Amino acid sequence: MSESIPSTGTVHLVGAGPGDPDLLTLRAARLVMQAGLIVHDGLVDPAILALARPAARLVSVAKSRSRHTMAQDAINALLVREALAGNDVVRLKGGDPFVFGRGGEEAEACRAAGVAVQVVPGISAAMGAAAAAQIPLTHRDSASIVSFVAGQCKGLTEQDWSGLAGKGRTLVIYMGVATSEAISEKLMADGLAPETPLAVIENASRPNMRVLRGPVAGLADLVAREKIKSPALIVIGHVTAQPENELRTFALEIAQ
C-alpha cells in the first residue's frame, strides 16, 4: 500500500488584541482554544495562551529590538512547513496581524507555497490602548485625522514627518520607546511645537497599565524617568489633553 499524503493545512493569522483576553474576537478565541499548534509573538498575553488546550504545541517566536528568537524568514518557513505537513496553524499576533504585525509578509510566503491563509482581525494596539486610556483618537474639537507610524523604521531621520502631528491631527507611534529621543527631535525638527501634549500608554488593557503624559519635548525624559518598557504606545496630539473620566471605568474593570 502506498503511503497517504497528508492534506495541506491552513495558516490562520490571528490578532490577539492589546492584551486583555476579553478583547479577543469570538473567532480568535475559538481558534486559540481548538488549535493544535500556536505560533505566537512575545506580546501575546499569557492569559490568552492559557486558553489553549493542554495538548496544543506552543511555539514562541518573540522578537525584541536587540534579540529575535527567530528571524522573519525562519518564521515564514516554519508556517509553510507545518501547513505542508498537514497541520492547521494559528499564528497569534498582538494587536492586528496587518497593522505593523508583518502579517502581510507571512501571508505572501504562505500563498507562494500554495498554503491557504485566513486572516482574523484583532483590536489594534492603537485602538485598544486609546480605549483603555479613554483617549479619543478623533474628536470634533481636536482631531479629524489619525496617522500610524512605526518608531523603529529604517531611515527615521531621513523621513518627512511634517504634517503628521499638529492642529487637528493625532499621531500614534508604535514601537517608539527605544527611539523616543530621536522621535521627539525628529517631530520638532519637522515643525511640531515642543509643547504639544502626548501620552505614553504602557501595557494597555492589562492590570498593570500606566498612562503617562507630558510634552513632546520631554518624551525621552519621561520614558527614562518612569522606566517605561514595551509594550507601550505613544499618542501625540491635543486629544491626549482631553479631561479624563474620573471613574476610569475600563481600567477599573480589568483591575478587578
Write the topology of this structure:
Blueprint: E1 10-15, H1 26-34, E2 37-40, H2 46-49, E3 57-60, H3 72-84, E4 89-93, H4 103-112, E5 116-120, H5 125-132, E6 143-150, E7 168-174, H6 180-189, E8 197-202, E9 210-215, H7 219-225, E10 232-236, H8 249-255
Parallel strand pairs: 1-4, 1-5, 2-3, 2-4, 6-7
Antiparallel strand pairs: 7-10, 8-9, 8-10
Pfam family, one: TP_methylase
Pathway: Porphyrin-containing compound metabolism; siroheme biosynthesis; precorrin-2 from uroporphyrinogen III: step 1/1
Domain Tetrapyrrole methylase: 10-219
Q: How is this structure best described in words?
A:
The protein has 256 residues and is an alpha/beta fold. Helix content is 27%, strand content 22%. The strands form two sheets. A five-stranded parallel beta sheet has the order 3-2-4-1-5, with helices on both faces. A five-stranded mixed beta sheet has the order 6-7-10-8-9, with helices on both faces. The relative contact order is 0.15. One of its GO terms (biological process) is methylation. InterPro entries: 4pyrrol_Mease (IPR000878), 4pyrrol_Methylase_sf (IPR035996), 4pyrrole_Mease_sub1 (IPR014777), 4pyrrole_Mease_sub2 (IPR014776), CobA/CysG_C (IPR006366), Siro_Cobalamin_biosynth (IPR050161), Uropor_MeTrfase_CS (IPR003043).
Name given to the CATH homologous superfamily of the largest domain: Tetrapyrrole methylase, C-terminal domain
Query: What is the terminal-to-terminal distance?
Result: 60 Å
- The unreliable regions are 245-256
Number of strands: 10
Helix content: 25-40%
Number of helices: 8
Number of domains: 2
Query: Tell me, what is the CATH class of the largest domain?
Result: Alpha Beta
Secondary structure class reads: alpha/beta
Query: Quick check: average pLDDT?
Result: 90
Radius of gyration: 20 Å
In terms of DSSP E residues, the strand content is 15-25%
Q: Outline, from the CA principal axes?
A: elongated
The CATH topology name of the largest domain reads Methyltransferase, Cobalt-precorrin-4 Transmethylase, Domain 2
What's the story with the biggest beta sheet?
5 strands, parallel
Report strand order across the widest sheet: 3-2-4-1-5
